Amino acid sequence: MLRKDGARLQPVDSGELRVRLARGLAAGLTVAEAGRRAGYLNGQSAWRAAQSDEVQAHVAKIREDAALAAGASLEWVLAHHVRIVEDADEKTNVRQASLTAITDVLGYKE
Q: Within 10 A of 86 (CB to CB), how many other CB atoms are there?
């Protein structure tokens, strides 16, 4: 099968697609653009993949690694990394509790 530009389409492992999608999302692209660049055939597939725990974990890891490489301290990265739970009613409480616990352990004061 050929693409419009004449290049031959190569089969890609779904895990590799998710990693490519995560890289695009971590770089700040929209889901549609990151999905297109990663090789997803339609936006709905990219959107579903972007919601997966696996892709979200890849995005978080890429952003943490980038922050550390840019010179941020490990404490800063930990203080700003908060896992968001799926239940919308609990998000605010869990986020605040996580930040409070992390900042207490690290000794940060507001």
A: 8
pLDDT in tens, 30-82: 999 999 988 888 889 899 999 998 898 888 888 877 777 777 666 666 666 55
Domain ranges of the chain: 8-72, 73-110
DSSP secondary structure string for all residues of 66-95:
HHHHTT--HHHHHHH--PPPS-TTTHHHHH
Do 18 and 52 meet the contact criterion of CB atoms below 8 Å apart?
yes
Spell out the residues 6+ positions from residue 98 whose beta carbon is closer than 8 angstroms to its own.
82, 83
Q: For residue 66, which of 15, 25, 17, 8 has the smallest C-alpha distance?
A: 25
Joined tokens for residue 69: 């490489």
Q: How far is CA 15 from the centre of its chain?
A: 14
Instruction: Return the sign of the alpha-carbon dihedral for residues 75, 79, 80, 85.
Output: positive
What is the end-to-end Cα distance of the chain in Å, rounded?
59
